Amino acid sequence: MTSDLSGKVALVTGAARGIGQAIADRYARNGAVVYYTDLILDEARAAADRTPNGRALKLDVTSTADVAAAVERVVAGSGRLDILVNNAGVNTMAHRVTIDEFPRAEWDRILAVDLTGLYEMTRAAAAVMKRQRGGRIINIASIAGLVPLRLQCAFVAAKAGVVNLTKGTALELGPHGVLTNAIAPGSTLTEGTRKLFYGDDGLFKESVQRMLDHVPLGRPGTVDEIAVAALFLADPENSYMNGHVLTVDGGWTAGYARDF
């Protein structure tokens, strides 16, 4: 899929690797100036340097000051901000336990990045986009925000919050020409999911086939398949989709059933 993003300026959070990098790469290949932002500046810079349209910024989405400074630098350097992708996110690996045993500190850590960080980025970008009378905000949610998964109470709560925040933001910013949508990936092959599921030493590798048995396509998604959805939501011709959650899960939630 291709799109004409020439003249557009995008900021992607968590763009040093995985889904964020794939989205940033695809935007850059389609003509946008793209700010690859991440806590890991060296990796963000390495990714951005592969394209003449790439720029790198260090960004902690849990820091209000960091967020404000990043958006200011984008506007100062490129004159505008047309596309924000809220991709930065974390989950827990050490605490796969029921809610009565789930540590408050881990809850706070996950919510701070996955939901409050998204709010901070959206708030800062929305002020710019309202002045421009246009823009796109694309939130990376999860199928875990649509249907519950066990032993991940903080993650499912955060991603459910992303889903409804997407819809609420669409209502508020739509009259200003700003479209807000989300993508809900299913299981996607990344460095993180290799550690959890798909690697030879994955923590939960014994449950992989049980999970994939419920995915009609029989495999995890790729980061580029999620990036295609993000390109579709950013395409200037896609001008009437607002408040939508685009599920990219190989059909997993089409007939949601599981024994895990």
Outline the structure in words.
- There is one protein chain.
- The model has no long low-confidence stretch (mean pLDDT 94).
- The protein is built from eight helices and seven strands, in the order E-H-E-H-E-H-E-H-E-H-E-H-H-H-E.
- The protein has two domains: 201 residues, Rossmann fold, CATH 3.40.50; 32 residues, no CATH class.
- Helix 5 links the parallel strand 5 and strand 6.
- Helix 4 runs parallel beside helix 5.
- It starts with 8 loop residues before the first strand and ends in a 12-residue tail after the last strand.
- The chain is α/β, with parallel strands linked by helices and 260 residues long.
- This is 3-oxoacyl-[acyl-carrier-protein] reductase FabG.
- It holds the Pfam family adh_short_C2.
